TrEMBL record:
Protein's UniProt name: Lysosomal Pro-X carboxypeptidase
Domain of life per record: Eukaryota
GO terms classed as biological process: proteolysis
Family: Belongs to the peptidase S28 family.
PANTHER family, sorted: LYSOSOMAL PRO-X CARBOXYPEPTIDASE-LIKE ISOFORM X1, PROTEASE S28 PRO-X CARBOXYPEPTIDASE-RELATED
InterPro entries per UniProt: AB_hydrolase_fold, Peptidase_S28, Ser_carbopepase_S28_SKS
Entry's Gene Ontology molecular function annotations: dipeptidyl-peptidase activity; serine-type exopeptidase activity
Alphabetized UniProt keyword annotations: Glycoprotein, Hydrolase, Protease, Signal
Higher taxonomy: Eukaryota, Viridiplantae, Streptophyta, Embryophyta, Tracheophyta
SUPFAM superfamilies: alpha/beta-Hydrolases
């Protein structure tokens, strides 16, 4: 696999998006973003940590589908339409005549532009399936924006109200029906694939539209982090465990650092001292700015603790080496430098409010209410999730209140083992246990066809990012891919057997 020349620019966009999302919202709205791609700046300086392919550009075509605004109502405005973007890679497809399968990547909270290059699992394995690869952009992101412009679409609650997951997966259903009809591929089986929020969409799509997809690969999908199914402190408990396993002394230094930051900040000119000590891009107005930045750095490093670099180990290595001094704050700064590298300033950088910033903020203020808090047994200062405060901030920003119970009402989640084994099938829930969001994932098999595949050392969406160009992937990750591919091939083989039994069709043999 070859590195894509635009990778660094794409990752820069993602990094700026993530930090602006985290630093510009009020405290109660800080839900760590769900994304399959690492979003911390050090990736810019170590491109080998993310593998991208762009060798299929000539085989990938961009299309637009005339999508309906509202799938669920019959008011006059429901029939308005917008152009929804999707991409198709024809390179590996065996064709409609052989009912060759279709891999459909369900876009999440960002434009679809970078997905073909960065979600390498699809191109790595499409040839062995003779599969068509489809990437569908999520409504309100990228070029799939209703009402003619992003400004108009996000103008108020009346226009942004069509921006939700149910409408999105109905969009995907309409696009897939259109593609199969256009390509005369009605008998081609579809497997939907997604990561993080997109992984949730993939699992929900399989449950809501089983007639359109024979299976789903849901990577790092925290479908149980709603409605208090998962303990609120699950996320930051895993972050703390990751750092403690990397280094006990590192963990203890971080644990002690928060009170030290508060102590220095309380002194005369304390904020100025902290600004200088941490080489901030602009002076700190309060100590929480620095603490929030560090919390986010530790959390995102744990979430995207990918090989071969393992950013948690990088941070702890910097803290334990204490290159800038043996006091607590000097050690913390050393960890920051170890991760960030030789940048001109380290904290409080320029804020860019991107479409993903605005979009994800709306999504978490409407239905994606993931109640993440910090308990008493982590390396952080306690900060419990307050739904009352959260709802107040959302109401102030958007004029509407969140619906914290809607995801479990519409898709389920409570007693999932009992419920899904009665009607669900053909979903892979893949997770890496070093990913803090795995605390809200499905980690045990529900049935023979609702399988949980996890790795002890894996991180967020690592399995769908694809193989390293130098074949240096750890054996446990290779084995995870093998298990996922085996399950997916089993789905397709069963589908063809059923097709033959029902219609007497010629059986298609995948490679």
């Amino acid at each position: 696999m070859k590195h894509h020349p635009m990778l660094s620019k794409w990752l820069l966009f993602i990094f700026l998006t993530y930090y602006s999302t985290y630093l510009t919202v009020s405290h109660s709205l800080k839900i760590p973003r769900l994304s399959p791609i690492a979003e911390w700046e050090t990736t810019l300086h170590n491109r080998a940590t993310v593998v991208a392919t762009d060798t299929d550009t000539e085989n990938r075509v961009t299309f637009y589908y005339k999508q309906v605004l509202d799938h669920f109502n019959y008011r006059p405005e429901s029939y308005k339409t917008f152009q929804q973007r999707y991409l198709i890679n024809f390179k590996y497809w065996g064709g409609a005549n052989s009912s060759a399968p279709i891999f459909a990547y369900l876009g999440a909270e960002e434009p679809i532009d970078g997905s073909p290059e960065l979600i390498g699992f699809l191109t790595d394995n499409a040839a062995s399936f003779n599969a068509l690869i489809v990437y569908i952009e999520h409504r309100y992101y990228g070029k799939s924006v209703p009402f003619g412009s992003r400004e108009e679409a996000l103008k108020n609650a009346s226009t942004i109200g069509y921006f939700n997951s149910a409408q999105a997966i109905a969009d995907y259903a309409s696009v897939l029906i259109h593609i199969k009809k256009t390509l005369h591929a009605q008998k081609s089986p579809v497997i939907v694939i997604g990561g993080s929020y997109g992984g949730m969409l993939a699992s929900w799509f399989r449950l809501k539209y089983p007639h359109l997809a024979i299976g789903a690969l849901a990577s790092s999908a925290p479908i149980l982090y709603f409605d208090n199914i998962t303990p609120q402190d699950g996320y930051y408990s895993v972050v703390s465990r990751d750092f403690r396993e990397a280094s006990e002394t590192c963990y203890q230094t971080i644990l002690k650092s928060w009170s030290e930051i508060d102590r220095v900040a309380s002194q005369p000119k304390g904020l100025s001292i902290l600004s200088q000590r941490f080489n901030t891009c602009r002076p700190l107005n309060e100590s929480s700015e620095l603490k929030d930045y560090l919390i986010n750095m530790y959390a995102s490093s744990a979430q995207y603790n990918h090989p071969p670099r393992y950013p948690v180990t990088v941070i702890c290595g910097g803290i334990d080496r204490a290159s800038f001094g043996s006091d607590i704050l000097s050690k913390i700064y050393a960890g920051l430098v170890a991760l960030r590298g030789n940048t001109t300033c380290k904290v409080n950088g320029p804020i860019i409010v991107s479409e993903t910033t605005l979009g994800w903020r709306w999504q978490t203020c409407s239905e994606m209410v993931i109640p993440i808090g910090i308990g008493n047994n982590t390396m952080f200062q306690p900060d419990p999730f307050s739904l009352k405060s959260y709802a107040k901030d959302c109401k102030k920003q958007f004029g509407v209140s969140p619906r914290p119970h809607w995801v479990t009402t519409y898709y389920g989640g409570h007693s999932i083992e009992l419920v899904l084994q009665k009607f669900g099938s053909n979903i892979i829930f893949s997770n890496g246990l070093r990913d803090p969001y795995s605390s809200g994932g499905v980690l045990k098999n529900i049935s023979d066809s609702l399988v949980a595949i996890h790795t002890v050392n894996g991180s967020h969406c690592l399995d769908i990012l694809g193989a390293n160009a130098n074949h240096s992937d750890p054996e446990w990750l290779v084995e995870q891919w093998k298990r996922e591919i085996m399950v997916m091939k089993g789905w397709i083989a069963q589908y063809y057997d059923d097709l033959v039994a029902l219609n007497g069709a010629t059986k298609f043999q995948s490679k």
